[in-house]
C-alpha cells in the first residue's frame, strides 16, 4: 500500500491561485492517482489535513500499517516543519516529496525545503503530473 498525504490548503485546489496551482481539484488528483494505482494493482491510502499534528500522527500510524511508500505534499509545512521532517526521518520506506508548482521559481522563502534532506526524492513543477510521476516512481521502488 502507498500512502498519499496532501498537506495544508490542498483541499482548496481548483479555487486557490489557479494561475499557480491549476484548475484541477484535489478530487481530480485523487481520481487520477486511484486509476494509475488500480492499473498497477496497487492499493492507495489518501489523506489530506491542514493540521501539522494530524499529518505527524498519520506518518506515525504508517509504521503500524502495511505502507510500502509515502508520497507527501507538505504544502507550506515544507519550508519550516521540523516536526514533519523528523517524523518522516523515522520511516524506512521510500518517501517522495511532491509539489504542483516549482518551489524554486517562486518566492525566496519557498526555496528551502526542510523535508528534502530526509526523503528519497522530490518532484516539483509539473502540476498534477508531479503526483503521477511520484506514484509511478514509488511503484518502481517497491517492486
Characterise the protein shown here:
The chain is built from 5 helices and 5 strands; from the N terminus they run E-H-H-E-H-E-H-E-E-H. The chain has helices spanning 18-21, 26-39, 52-61, 82-89, 128-142; strands spanning 2-6, 44-48, 69-73, 95-99, 121-124. It has a 5-stranded parallel β-sheet, covered by helices on one side. Helix 4 (82-89) links the parallel strand 3 and strand 4. Homododecamer.
Query: Number of helical runs?
Result: 5
Please name the fourth-level CATH homologous superfamily: Dehydroquinase, class II
Biggest β-sheet: count, sense, barrel? 5 strands, parallel
Which class do the helix and strand fractions yield? alpha/beta
Q: Would you identify the regions where 5 or more consecutive residues have pLDDT less than 50?
A: none
**Morphology call:** globular
User: What is the β-strand count?
Assistant: 5
In CATH terms, what is the fold-level topology?
Answer: Rossmann fold
Strand order within the widest beta sheet:
2-1-3-4-5
Distance between the termini: 12 Å
CATH architecture title: 3-Layer(aba) Sandwich
- The helix/strand series, from N terminus to C terminus, equals EHHEHEHEEH
Total domain modules: 1
Alpha carbon gyration radius: 14 Å
Strand content: 15-25%
**Which percent bin holds the helix content?**
25-40%
GO biological process, one term: chorismate biosynthetic process
Family: Belongs to the type-II 3-dehydroquinase family.
EC number: 4.2.1.10
GO molecular function: 3-dehydroquinate dehydratase activity
Amino acid at each position: 500500500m502507498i500512502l498519499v498525504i496532501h498537506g495544508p490548503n490542498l483541499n482548496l485546489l481548483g479555487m486557490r491561485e489557479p494561475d499557480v496551482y491549476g484548475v484541477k481539484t484535489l478530487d481530480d488528483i485523487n481520481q487520477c492517482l486511484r486509476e494509475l494505482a488500480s492499473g498497477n494493482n496497487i492499493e492507495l491510502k489518501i489523506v489530506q489535513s491542514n493540521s501539522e499534528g494530524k499529518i505527524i500522527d498519520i506518518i506515525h500510524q504508517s509504521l503500524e500499517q502495511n505502507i510500502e511508500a509515502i508520497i507527501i505534499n507538505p504544502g507550506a509545512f515544507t519550508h519550516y516543519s521540523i516536526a514533519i521532517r523528523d517524523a518522516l526521518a523515522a520511516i524506512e520506506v521510500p518517501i517522495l516529496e511532491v509539489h504542483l508548482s516549482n518551489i524554486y521559481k517562486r518566492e525566496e522563502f519557498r526555496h528551502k525545503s526542510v523535508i528534502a534532506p530526509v526523503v528519497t526524492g522530490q518532484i516539483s513543477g509539473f502540476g498534477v503530473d508531479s503526483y503521477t510521476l511520484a506514484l509511478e516512481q514509488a511503484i518502481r521502488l517497491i517492486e
